[in-house]
Each structure stands twice: as structure tokens, then as C-alpha cells.
Amino acid sequence: MKKNLGVAPLVFPQPVLIIATYDENKKANAMNAAWGGIVGKDKIIINLSAHKTTDNIMKRKAFTISIGDKEHMLSCDYVGIVSANNEPDKMEKAGFTTTKSKYVDAPVINELPMALECELLNIIEGDMYLTRIVNVLADESILSNEGKITLNKFSPITYDTSESGYYTLGKRIGTAFKDGERLK
After folding, report:
1. What is the pLDDT of residue 105?
2. By percentage, how much of the chain surpasses pLDDT 70?
3. What domains, with CATH codes, occur in the chain?
4. Which residues make Cβ contacts (< 8 Å) with residue 144, sequence separation at least 6?
5. Across 23-113, where does the E strand assignment appear?
6. Is the C-alpha dihedral spanning 15, 166, 115, 118 positive or negative?
7. pTM reported for the whole predicted model
8. Does the N-terminal or the C-terminal CB of the chain have fewer CB atoms within 10 Å?
């Protein structure tokens, strides 16, 4: 029997999204965002409260989103708990270096193997940032022989909102849009 829990203790794994921006002095900054996801072929929505990062997004209308991975979990968590308003060397302490994006006015975090280069389209209901993905960057170390990002080589982490834990994705258990054919 299922128990009614309401919406507060929702267990819904969220990708660990590391948002990188430039401030007014062109200094790179990053934060960890827990609420967001792909909403179409080239769109993503991220729910963000007020931060230095959101101020930077409003000024530049651009940012990058890197996907947190197992190897950099500590650094990803650090940029989520420390504000650049209080720690000017936040990126250095996290062990992150950056390169300027070729497509948007934002930094790409070199250490994280995948990044989405995004431009702001709209803000919905005051805190949901709708963006267009203009390019995807992936380190060759996470690509298959066919040049696609593969979870056989990439270890993205998810955030469990119910127990405040980080988890790696598990092993492949099936083939999408094919295995269900057996029930026809």
C-alpha cells in the first residue's frame, strides 16, 4: 500500500548542475544548482534563488552548465555552499580553472568533462531561468568510439533531495524505445 507523503519529502534525483558565469570584472564564478533539467531538444530550465550567479546571468544573459561528476563531487559541493560574495577565491579553492566559451559570454570549467553553453531566453515566475543551449562541449575521455557522450565513460552525479545525498548513476538495464516492444 502506498502512503500519501504530500510534496515536501519528494524523492526525485536531480542532476548536479554547476552554473558558471562571469561577474562585472570578468572573474569566473560557479554555483551548484539542485533544481533543473532539459525541457526540449535545445532548452533547459533551472530554478535559482537570488545569488551572485543570478546577478551575473542578468548582466550577461549567458552562462555555462557543467554536469557534476564523481571525480569532482567535493568541488561541486563546495561551490554550492560557499558564496563568491564572501569568498573571492572560491573557484581556486574548489580547484576549478576556466576557459572562455566560444559561443556565450561565460566561462567553461575545464575540470568538468561536459558543459552546456547557454543563453538566457526568459525568466518564468521570478526564479525559473529558461535558456537555450547553443553548444555542448564534451571531453574526449567521455566519448564513445562514435563520438557520443557515453555513461560507460562518464560518471555524472545526481542529488537526492529527500536525503541530501549525491549518487552516481547505475549500470545500464535496458534499451529505450525498444525493450517495451516485447509487451506488444
Report:
1. 97
2. 97
3. 14-183 (2.30.110.10)
4. 150, 152, 153
5. 28-33, 36-40, 43-47, 62-67, 98-100, 107-109
6. positive
7. 0.91
8. N
